């Protein structure tokens, strides 16, 4: 409350990411070094996504965030609506320095991450291998965890119904495809525990509440490392996407925010992130610098990419409101 | 100065003093309670998204009779303000409002606005229709016309699963979108079940507390109040730990051999009931206790000495005297229960969320404040209605809050 009294100008540079072990790693690799090297005071916050939250911040008139890590469709929607500042690409070293999916007028890619199935190897010796197994509650008894919302959930449902990853979005573009996904979801509905924050699925898995769950790949690795778990990752059918850094419109800390983003886009810094949280990095040179021991557990490893599905941002930009409404009705019934 | 005038002056001063004493609370209530409720009611019918960004289009649409396609001046005003909105990035509000009624309107609007020419190719009607077929659909323009009115029944209707169809009459929404009536019913049902449980558990407890000597009962009262003073979040979190599959309750039940497999106690309705009853129980115990404390044990003794069985004495002498406490306790627990959000969100499953969850969802996630306000208004109205019925049955003057 005290900071609100000082007005927007007096506010410290605030960076908002996704919390948990991921943000802990970002703090070590990016935030702390940035503070000690530039002397800029940096405040952190975390969120669970949703373009609505950004609309509220910017249109509410007292945005207390500056640099925010957003998901792909939040980047597109927010940029279209003017919620973000346009980035100064010259200061970032030009667009060619990054993988193509990481380049946008309003944002630069932070990580490539995958949402996939994970289960506890200590409890399930012969675990699930696909989304069809995830749906098979006879073979693998127990509850299932998925992120609450239509995004990912509908893709997973279609893959569980035997749809090839390459056909998923083509099918979801039709009413019949959406109906088919919801019909498949009906089968698993009584066994579901829905999660909202990225740290939750691992807690659910650790407490034995669910037998398997979707989760973000690096969170699984982090849980194994910090809590001595044996959580296994199932790469086939994982959906990968790029998260980006943006600066909220009319940020009083625009310059400092650009400095921070440039700092975080430097390949020699990015290379230190995967050993802590094995997400893929976005600066082209960075991947070559990453410790080779980490490569097999990164989404950008070619074998892992080959069995995954790239999130179709365009599809979700066009359909997120409609499908969220339908999903909420479905889940509430 | 005569006596009368003096008296009047003293009277006036007294009145002023009384007003001055009440004024801070009154101002507080007006600013922080009545005004927000009023604003919420206004929000639930507010329709200013399109008129504020496209004032000319809105007035042209209002002048149109609504039959078929609108005249050229509507198209022209719309095209001009669409281009302007695209330039200063104010279109998102309009897009959001229109998407509520036609799901893909966001893409239609932005695709039409992107690179819209300054001058029409033929008429604006043809130009817009060529850029996107949606603009030659009468239904699109019927929605546009509804969005141009200063107030809308859209949100309030949607909050009770109704909508206005193409012909302008109110109809039920399709089954795969109809949820809110069920959610209101569920909300009141959960609150009612919790109230009944609180009464069943709280009545004997309050009776015991009231009949013990003050020193013992004060000590026991602390056991009621201690959790009452603990944060709801902490208590709900504690229930998650206790009730989970590998939590102490399941492990104990398995250890004593009552169950073979862990039972599902959390992330479902059972968890919601357990946690809500625990949190709301003090609101039942306190009014009951205060009423029971005032009942002289002599009445029941007199009844039994006149030949009544203990049950008759309880039913005909003791129970009627506790009605004010029962009335107040039930009303408190029910109304607090109806507004619950945190507890069902943490210990309930997807099918156990109450109206407040959706108010929060629309407020925080999609920023559809109209919908959030409409759900809030319907909840307020339904609660007031239930209160009125309840007050008729129990009698407000017979309630004692403690």
Description:
The complex is a heterodimer of chains A (333) and B (402). Chain A contains 16 helices and 9 strands. Chain A has 333 residues and is an alpha/beta fold. In chain A, strands 1, 2, 3, 4, 5, 6, 7, 8 and 9 form a 9-stranded mixed sheet that branches. In chain A, strand 1, helix 2 (20-38) and strand 2 form a beta-alpha-beta unit. Chain A is globular. With 402 residues, chain B is mainly alpha-helical. Chain B is 72% helix and 1% strand. Chain B contains 19 helices and 2 strands. Chain B has a two-stranded antiparallel ribbon with strand order 1-2. The A-B interface holds A 50, 52-53, 55-56, 59, 80-82, 143, 148, 192-194, 207-209, 317-319, 321-322, 324-326, 328-333 and B 89-92, 95, 99, 103-104, 106-107, 110, 176-179, 182-183, 244-247, 262, 264, 266-267, 349-351, 353, 358, 361, 364-368.
Could you name the key traits of this structure?
heterodimer; A: 333 residues; alpha/beta; nine-stranded mixed sheet; 16 helices; 43% helix; globular; disordered N terminus; B: 402 residues; mainly alpha; two-stranded antiparallel ribbon; 72% helix
Quick summary:
The complex is a heterodimer of chains A (333) and B (402). Chain A is of the alpha/beta class and 333 residues long.
Chart the SSEs and their pairings.
The complex is a heterodimer of chains A (333) and B (402).
Chain A lengths: L1 H4 L7 E5 L2 H19 L3 E5 L4 H9 L7 E4 L1 H9 L27 E13 L10 H5 L8 E4 L5 H8 L7 H5 L2 H14 L3 E4 L4 H7 L5 E5 H11 L3 E17 L6 H11 L2 H4 L2 H4 L7 H6 L12 H6 L1 E2 L2 H20 L1
Parallel strand pairs in A: 1-2, 1-3, 5-6, 5-7, 8-9
Antiparallel strand pairs in A: 3-8, 4-7, 4-8
Chain B lengths: L2 H41 L5 H5 L1 H9 L8 H16 L3 H11 L3 H9 L10 H8 L6 H11 L5 H5 L3 E3 L5 E3 L7 H32 L2 H15 L3 H12 L4 H8 L13 H25 L3 H9 L4 H29 L3 H6 L7 H11 L3 H26 L8
Antiparallel strand pairs in B: 1-2
Helix content of chain A: 40-55%
Terminal CA distance of chain A: 40 Å
Question: How many strands, which pairing sense, and closed or not: the largest β-sheet of chain A?
Answer: 9 strands, mixed
Secondary-structure element sequence of chain A?
Answer: HEHEHEHEHEHHHEHEHEHHHHHEH
Name the chain pair whose interface involves the most residues: A-B, 31 and 36 residues
State the total count of DSSP E strands of chain A: 9
Biggest sheet details of chain B: 2 strands, antiparallel
Counting DSSP H or I runs of 4 or more residues, the number of helices of chain A is 16
Proportion of residues in extended strands of chain A? 15-25%
Low-confidence stretches of chain A: 1-8
What integer value in Å does the Rg of chain A equal?
20 Å
Distance between the termini of chain B: 48 Å
Largest beta sheet: strand ordering of chain B? 1-2
Question: Pairing-aware structural class of the strands and helices of chain B?
Answer: mainly alpha
Number of strands of chain B: 2
Shape of chain B: extended
**Mean of residue pLDDT values of chain A:** 90
């Amino acid at each position: 409350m005290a900071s609100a009294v000082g007005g927007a100008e007096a506010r410290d540079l605030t960076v908002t990411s996704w919390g948990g072990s991921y943000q802990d790693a970002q703090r070590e690799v990016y935030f702390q070094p940035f503070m000690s090297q530039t002397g800029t005071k940096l405040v952190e916050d975390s969120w669970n996504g949703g373009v609505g939250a950004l609309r509220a911040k910017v249109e509410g008139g007292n945005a207390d965030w500056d640099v925010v890590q957003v998901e792909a469709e939040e980047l597109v929607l927010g940029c279209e609506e003017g919620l973000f500042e346009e980035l100064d690409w010259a200061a970032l070293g030009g667009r060619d320095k990054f993988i193509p999916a990481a380049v946008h007028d309003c944002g630069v890619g932070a990580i490539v991450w995958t949402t996939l199935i994970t289960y506890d190897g200590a409890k399930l010796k012969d675990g699930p291998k696909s989304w069809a197994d995830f749906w098979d509650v006879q073979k693998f008894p127990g509850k299932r965890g998925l992120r609450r919302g239509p995004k990912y959930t509908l893709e997973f449902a279609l893959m569980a119904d035997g749809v090839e990853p390459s056909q998923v979005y083509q099918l979801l573009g039709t009413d019949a495809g959406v109906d088919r996904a919801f019909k498949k979801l009906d089968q698993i509905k009584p066994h579901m525990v829905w999660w909202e924050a990225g740290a939750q699925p691992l807690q659910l898995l650790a407490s034995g509440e669910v037998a398997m769950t979707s989760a973000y790949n690096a969170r699984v690795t982090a849980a194994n490392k910090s809590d001595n778990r044996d959580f296994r990752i199932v790469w086939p059918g994982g959906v990968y996407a790029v998260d980006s850094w943006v600066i909220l419109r009319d940020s009083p800390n625009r310059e400092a925010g650009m400095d921070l983003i440039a700092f975080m886009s430097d390949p020699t810094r990015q290379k230190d992130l995967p050993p802590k949280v094995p997400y893929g990095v976005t600066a082209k040179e960075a991947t070559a610098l990453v410790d080779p021991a980490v490569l097999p557990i990164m989404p950008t490893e070619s074998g892992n990419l080959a069995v995954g599905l790239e999130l179709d941002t365009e599809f979700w930009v066009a359909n997120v409101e409609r499908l969220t409404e339908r999903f909420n009705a479905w889940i509430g019934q | 100065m005569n006596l009368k005038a003096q008296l009047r002056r003293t009277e006036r001063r007294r009145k002023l003093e009384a007003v001055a004493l009440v004024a801070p609370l009154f101002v507080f209530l007006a600013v922080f309670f009545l005004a927000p409720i009023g604003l919420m009611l206004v929000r639930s019918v507010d329709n200013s998204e399109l008129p504020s960004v496209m004032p000319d289009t809105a007035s042209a649409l209002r002048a149109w009779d609504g039959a078929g396609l609108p005249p050229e001046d509507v198209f022209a005003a719309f095209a001009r303000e669409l281009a302007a909105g695209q330039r200063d990035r104010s279109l998102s509000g309009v897009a959001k409002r229109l998407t509520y009624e036609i799901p893909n309107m966001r893409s239609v609007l932005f695709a039409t606005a992107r690179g819209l020419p300054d001058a029409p190719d033929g008429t604006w009607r043809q130009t817009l229709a060529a850029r996107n077929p949606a603009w030659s659909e009468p239904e699109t323009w019927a929605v546009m016309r509804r969005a141009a009115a200063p107030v809308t029944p859209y949100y309030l209707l949607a909050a009770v699963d109704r909508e206005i169809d193409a012909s302008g009459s109110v109809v039920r929404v399709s089954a795969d979108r109809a949820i809110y009536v069920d959610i209101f019913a569920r909300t009141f049902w959960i609150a009612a079940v919790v109230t009944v449980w609180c009464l069943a558990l709280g009545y004997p407890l309050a009776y015991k507390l009231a009949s013990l000597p003050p020193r013992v009962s004060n000590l026991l009262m602390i056991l009621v109040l201690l959790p009452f003073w603990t944060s709801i979040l902490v208590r709900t979190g504690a229930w998650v730990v206790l009730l989970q599959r590998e939590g102490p309750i399941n492990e104990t039940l398995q250890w004593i051999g009552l169950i073979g497999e862990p039972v599902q106690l959390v992330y479902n309705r059972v968890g919601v009931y357990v946690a809500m009853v625990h949190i709301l129980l003090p609101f039942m115990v306190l009014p009951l206790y205060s009423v029971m404390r005032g009942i002289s044990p002599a009445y029941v003794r007199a009844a039994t000495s006149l030949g009544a069985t203990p049950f008759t004495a309880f039913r005909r002498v003791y129970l009627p005297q506790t009605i004010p406490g029962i009335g107040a306790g039930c009303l408190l627990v029910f109304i607090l229960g109806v507004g619950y959000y945190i507890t069902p969100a943490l210990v309930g499953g997807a099918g156990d969320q109450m109206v407040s969850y959706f108010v929060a969802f629309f407020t925080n996630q999609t920023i559809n404040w109209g919908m959030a306000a409409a759900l809030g208004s319907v909840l307020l109205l339904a609660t007031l209605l239930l209160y009125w019925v309840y007050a008729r049955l129990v009698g407000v003057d017979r309630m004692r809050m403690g």
